[in-house]
Amino acid sequence: MSNIKKALVPDLKNKKVEDIVQLVQNVYDNNGLSTELELQFIQLKINESPQLLRAVKANPESLYNSILQAAESGLSLNPQWQEGYFVPYNMKVDGKEVPTVTFSPMYRGKKKLLISKGIVKNILTELVYEGEEWDEKINNGVREIHHIPNSFKRADHTKIIGGYAIIILNNDEKQYVVKGRDYFERCLAASKRKMNGKTSPAWRDWYDQMCKKCLINAADSEIPKIGVNAKVTQLLNDINTNDVDYVDVTDEKTGKLPEPKKKLSMHEFSDLIDKLLRYEISLKSARQKYKGYDFTDKLKDEIKKAGTITDERLTEIINLVIADKKELTHFEFYLDEIQFETLKNAIVDHTMQNEK
After folding, report:
1. Is residue 123 part of a domain?
2. CA proximity to 10, closest of 55, 53, 87, 63
3. What are 221-275's pLDDT values in tens digits?
4. 259 in a domain, yes or no?
5. Where are the alpha helices (DSSP H) in 259-330?
């Protein structure tokens, strides 16, 4: 076994550090990467970034998931290769901001991923700057592009007016994706929303490379995934979902309306209230289960009232447990710490009195 520092992969609930490291090492080995080197790159980055260190300490589970996802992708975290990196950001969970680590492939990494997983034979991307010769047309249903770049006048990324990707499919057929600068700006704005108003380091430091990544992502959305196995499809979906810089926005309006929220019938609503009052479901569980449902403010108040544990209801719970109608453990997730401690003390007092 390697001499990887345990501090790098913190102990997680129901997981031993040694098991976590072994799992990651197996995945790295299967993808032809050195576990020692990759974890050293991660450790170095954590030591250099106070924000990343804070997210690691606050949410070690997200670090483990990010390391495993990076390993499964086959992309190196070597900063010189510029294939992928870890991003610390605050993710909103139940209205609270939780420091989180996520894996984000860079432009070269996303391109490598699509090619190495057999999705395409190749993807070529190019940006178009002000002053460069550019023309495009559709000839018999086939897009034709004429572009003469000027590589010596590309220092100012504010001069980028658009870009395009040439997708070479596995059957050698070519597809083109063309986007204007407005598309890049919308991707940046959407990324900021994911980052709670902050600009990711990639957008801040490598605007031109991120524009190319936008083109790769746009191409990814259009590439037919014929014959791609479920494991690779799931990997791509997971990476795109967790990537703070991935935004699936298009110039086209699909005309699709947002999915309407579900509604409960009055019979189903009454049944929900009844279950809350009989302690068959907690308020937290009810909110999670019916998160996508539409309730009026009045109905929301009724749900909250039925699921809130008042002092009077705590007394009722104590009596239920004493009468052996409910188990003590049943209320562990219904009550806050103080209420649950009160319940346990009441049971102890009742037991002691019966023994006298």
Report:
1. yes
2. 63
3. 888 777 777 778 877 888 887 777 776 554 444 434 345 567 788 888 898 899 8
4. no
5. 266-277, 283-289, 297-307, 311-322
